[in-house]
Structures
1.
Amino acid sequence: MKPPDTTFRPSRGPIATTRKYLKILRASLVERMTYRADFIFGTLFRFLPILTTILLWRAIYKGASGNDETDTTLSGFTYKQMIAYLLLTNISRMFSSMPGLAGGIARDIREGTIKRYLIQPIDMVGYLLAYRIAHKLAYIVGAAIPYLILFYLCRDYFDYFPDTLTFVAFLVACVMAFVVGFFFEVCVGMVGFWFGEVTSLLYIVMTLNFFISGHMLPLDLLPHPWSDILKALPFQYMAYFPAVVFQGKVQGMALVVGLLAELAWSVFFILLARWLFVRGLKRYSAFGG
Amino acid sequence: MTTFWKYAKLLGQLGRYTLARELAFRSNFLVKVFVEALWLGILLAFYATVFGKTSLVAGWTQNQYLFFVGCFFALNGLIECLFLENCNEFAELVRTGDLDFLLLKPIDEQFLITCRRVDWATAPNILMGAGVMLLALFRMHWAFDPVKLIAFFVTFGCGVLIAYAFMLTLTAFSVWLVRNQSLMEMWWLFASLARYPKQIFDGTNVAPLGFLFTFILPILLVANVPSNVMVRAFDWRMIGFTLFATVMSLWASRRFFQHALRSYRSASS
C-alpha cells in the first residue's frame, strides 16, 4: 500500500487564497439554491409587509392632510418620498441584515466546533465572509426579479432616477452597509467567548436595530434630540443612510462626510471584530467533543 | 364531551410540564419577556411619533388605535404562547422523519403537533396587550357596556382561532417544501396583514384586496372585529360573519393539514 504523501503542502499566495474562498462561495451558492420552492415562497411573503406599510403610510398622510395624501409634507418627506424611502430601506436591509450570523458564531464557540477553523489553514471571519457573500448574492439575484416588478409597479413614488454620481454613492453606501452589518454581527457573536450565550443580547440588539436603523420610519420624523442622537450612531448606515442618499436628500459635502463616516464605522467594526477574535481565542478553552 | 375534557386535561398537563421546564431557565424567560416589552415600547413610540403628526389614521383616533395595537399584541401573544413554537418545529419533524413518532401516538395528530408545548415566555404579552387596551379605554373614558365586552371576548376568541387556522395551513406546506424557512418568520410576514386596521385597504386599487382578506381569506378579521366591537362601530352582521368565518377556517385548515399528512413520506430509516 502506498503511504500517505506527507510532503503535500497547500499552495500559498494571494491567488491560491482567493481560489480557496471562491470555492467556499460556490459551495454555499449551490446549497442555497437546493430548496428553490421554499426560497420563492419566502421571497413572495416578504412583499406582504411592504404592501401593508405603503397602505398604512397612505392612511397616515391622508389623516394629516384631511383627505388628499399628496397635499402634505411630514418632516421634509412628501407622501411619495416616504413610500420611496420605505421601499429603499428594504434594499439597504437586503445588504445589511445578517440572519443567523452572530448566533452561529456563538454556537460554534459554545459547542467547541470553532476549532475546525483553528486546525485548518482558514480564517474564521474570512470563511464566514465568503459564505455570507454567497448567500447575499443568491438572495439578491433571486429577489431581483420580484423587486424589479415591485419597483416598476411603484415607479410613480420615485420623482426621478438619481444622477450617476448619486447612484454610485448609493451603491457604495449599500456595500458599506453590508460591511457594517456583517462585522457588527460578528462582534456580537464574538461576545460568546466571554458569555457563552448571546441569543438574549442578540434579540435585544436586533429588536432595537429595527427601529433605530430607520427601517420603520425616517429618523427625521423623530422629535429632537432623538433624531440627532440616532444619526450619530452606526445603525443608521444599515437602513436610513443609503435610502436618503438615493433620494438625493444628502448631497455635496454632507454626502462626502456621511460616506467617510460610514467607512470609518466599517473600519472600526472590522478592527473590533479582529481584536475580539484574538482576545477571545486566548480565553477559549475548547469545550465540546 | 368526554373527548373534549380528555383533550382539555391533556392540554393542562402539557402546559404544566412546559412551565416546569421553562422555570428551569428563569433568566432566559426574563430576557424573552424583556425583548417583548421592548418591542411593545418600540411600537408605542412609533405610533406616538405618527400621531404627533396627525390625529386620525384610517379613521381611527389615537386612543382607538392604541386599543387596536393592544388587541393585536395580546392576540398574537396568545397565538405565540399556544401554537407558534409547535408549528415552527413541524418542518424539522418532517425533514428528520421524527414525525413518525408523533403519528404513532393514540391521539389526534393535529392536537399533538400544534399544542404539545406552551411557550410560557410569550404569555406576559397577553397581559401587556391587555394593559395597553385598558390604558386606551381609560384615556377615552369608555362607558362600561356588558354586551360589548362579551362580544369582544367572543370575537377575540374567534380571532385567535382564525389566526390558528392560517398558521396550521402555513405549517402544512412544510410537508412539500421540506425546509420551510423559519415558520416564525413566515408567520410574522403573513400576520402583517392583520396588524393594521382594515380601513387602510381603501381606494379602487386596493379595495379588492381588502375584500379578499376579509371575506375569502379572512385574516383581516382577526384583530379588526374585536377592536371595532369594543371601541368603534358595533356591527352584528360582522360578528355573525366572524363566527361563520371561524368555523369555515378551522374546517378548511384541518382538511388541508390532513391532506398534507397523507402526502408525508417518512424520511427516516
2.
Amino acid sequence: MILSFLRGHTFSHGVRVAHHKEQTASRPIRRLPFPERLILPLDPHIGKPAVPLVRRGQEVVRGEPIARADGWMSLPIHAPATGRVVALEPMPTPRGPRRPAIVLEVDPADTQEMGWGEPRDPLAMDRETLIAAIQESGLAGLGGAAFPTHVKLSVPPEQRVDTLLINGCECEPYLTCDHRIMLEQTDDLVTGIRIAMRATGVQEAVIGVENNKPDAVAAIRAGLREEDPIRVVVVESKYPQGAEKMLIKAALGREVPPGGIPAQVGVVVNNVGTMAALGHLLPRGEGLVERVITVAGPAVRRPGNYRVALGTPIEFILRHCGFEGKMGEFILGGPMMGSAVSAVETPITKGTSGVLMLHEREIEAESRPAEHCIRCGRCVEACPMHLNPCELGWLARKREYDTMAERFHLMDCFECGCCSFVCPASIPLVQYFRIAKSILREQAA
Amino acid sequence: MSGTRIELRTAPHAHAPVDVPLIMRHVIYALLPIVAWSVWLFGLGTLLLILTVTATALATERLLGGEGGERSIRDGSAVITGLLLALTLPPAFPLWMGVVAAVAAIGLGKMLFGGLGMNPLNPALVGRAFVQAAFPASITTWIPPLGAERFTSVAPSTLAPPFLRPEGLAEWIADQRVDAFTGATPLGLFKFDGVITPLRDLLAGTTAGSAGETPALLIVACGLYLAFRRFLDWRIPLAVMAGVVLAAGPLHLLDAERFPDPWFMLLSGGLMLGAWFMATDMVGSPVTPWGVLIYGLLIGLLTVVIRLFGGLSEGVMYAILLANAATPLIERLTQPRVFGAARRKE
C-alpha cells in the first residue's frame, strides 16, 4: 500500500519488461507512401463484417464508403486511397489466412486528397445523431481490440457511467505510436475526449499515462483548458498497466468484478489513439482511412512511427522500412500480446498498433524448449488477475478444462502473457490457456 | 523479400532472463560458502563426505534419468540435493552410508515420482530420513569442530567399511585436543543435560552438529543473497522463524527452566539451514501467498513441538517433510482471491 503510494498509481502483480521504446519514441510521425494494392478485410473490427457497396472494376475516391455497416454491432469501411476495386475475394488478414476482403488498386497518378466528408460541429449534435455519426466514421478501438467505438460510447442510462477513462499507458514494449500521438495530436485528442464525453454524458474524463512518458503528460496538461473536466493521472510503468481492468484499478481505484465490464463500475475506457482519431474525423465528417503504427524491432533498418493507409500489406512496410535478415518473425502489435503473421501480404487493419520485426538472433533466444514446472510460483506472483497459472498449467496438461474454468477462474484470464514471460521453465502457459478457453467456448456453442 | 523465411510463434515474444539452470546455479553459489565453512570446521573427512554424497546424487540422477538424464544433470538440481543432503549429515558420517543416503534421496525422493518438479517431498530430507531410520547410531555420532588433526587425519568412522561397526572414534576425538567435548549437539545438551550453548558459538557454528547446519549467521547471509536475487521466497524462512518464536516464546515465558528462549531455538540445530534452504525448495512448498505463510508457520511450530515434547532432540527434518506433505492441502485452501472478486469468498 505504502509502496504503491510512493511509486504512483498502479495495480498489484504484473511484470517489469524492458521497454525498448528509445528506438522510436523520439521519431515524429511520418507518412508512408501508398502501396500498389490495398487489402481491406470486411471484418477489421469486432462484430459483424461490413457489406460491400462496390463491384469489381469500380473506381473509388479516397474517403468514399465502400462497405456499409451490417447492423448495430458493425462498422462501414472507407476507401483509404483513390483507385479501382480489383477483387472481392478471401485474402490473408490478421484474423486468419483467408477472410473476405476488398482489394483496391491505388491510382498512382492521383494526388490522394481526401475526396469525401462534410464538416460539422459534433458538440452541437444531440447524443443520438452523434453516436450515429461516430458509427458512420467507421471508428474502432485503435489500441488493438478494434471494438466499435460507437457501441462503447453508447452507455445505457441504467449503468450510471460517471467517468471516461482514456488509456495512454502503452505498456507494450517497443510501441510508441500512442506516445507520439499524445505529443503531436494533443488538440485532436482533447477534442476527441470532449466529443466522447458528450456522447456518453459523463461528467469527468481521466487520462492515464505511464510515468515513462513525462513529455506526453506535460503536452496534454498544456493542451487542456481550465474549465475542461479532464485530468491526467500518472500511473506506474509496468506491464500490463494498459489492460482495461488494471488501468481502472490504477487510475480510479475501482475493481471490475470477474467476468464483468468496466461500465459496471461506472467507467468507459478508450485508447488515446482512438480519441485523437475521433477528434480528427468527426468535425471533418470523414471516415477512418489511415492510422499511426510503430515499426520497430532489432531487425528493422529505418524504425519509426508511420501514418499508413489501412490495408497496406506488411510486405510493403518491410520493403519501405528495411528488413535485415533471412529469417524473420513479423508481429502485429507488441511483443507481449501481438500475433505473428503467417503471410507477408497480411494488411494493417484498424486494430494494428505496430509491426515488430525480429530476426534469427531473437528467434533463437526465444526458442527454448519447455521444461518441467518447478513450482517456483513466479507466475502466481505475476498474474494481474490473481489467478493461479501454476495450477492451471497442470490442469491444462491433464485436459481438465472444466475444472480450470469452474474452480480456477480460467475465463478471467485476458491472455496478457505475464505467466509465460516469467516462467523459468519456458512453459507456454498463456498458450495453454488460449487453447483451453477456445475449446470451452466451442463446447458451449 | 521472397527469400525470407517466416517464423510463427505465439505471444509473448519476449521472456524474462531467468531460467531453471540459472536459479539452480545461484542456489549452488549460495551453498558454497557454507560448504567451505563446514570443511574449515570439521576437516578432511567432511570434504570427502560432501564430495561423495554429491557425486552419488549426480550418478543416481544420470542412471535413473534414462533418456532425459543428461538434461536433468545440466539443470543442477541434483548437485543441490547432494550438497544439502551432505550438509545435514554428521561430519564424520561413514562414506558408504552417505552413498546410501544419496541414492535414497535421488531415487526414492525424486526419480520415483518423475524427476525434477514432481517430487512432493524435499529429496535431500527423504535421503536423510532414510539413513536416520537405517543407521540410528551413526546419524547421531558427532565430532568436535576445529579439531587439531582435522586436516591431517580422517575420523575412523568416515572410512568404515560397509556393514561393520566403526571403531576407534573415541581415541581419534581424544587426539583432536578439544576441551570438554561431550559428543552432543547444543540441542542434545539442552534436552538431556539442560545445558544452554553460548550464543556466540551458535552464531559462528563452532558447536557439534551436522556438517553444514551449525553456522547460523553464515546461513542467513547466504539465504539473504538468494532472497535479494529473488531466487528464494523470503516469506518462507520468515514464516518459519515466526512460527518458532510464536511457539517457543510463550512456553519460555511460562517456564523458563523447562523451555529455552526463542533465540536458542532459532539458532540451534538445523533450523536456519532448514528454513532458508530446505523449506524454500520450490517444488514442495505452496505457490499461493497465504499458503506460503501457513506452510512456514507450520514448520516452525512442528519443529518446536518435536524438539520440546518429542523423543528426538531435533525436529526440523520431520517438520519440513510433514509440511511438504501438507502442501497440496494448504494450496487447496488458500487459492488467491481473483481480481475484482468480493473480499469474502463464496
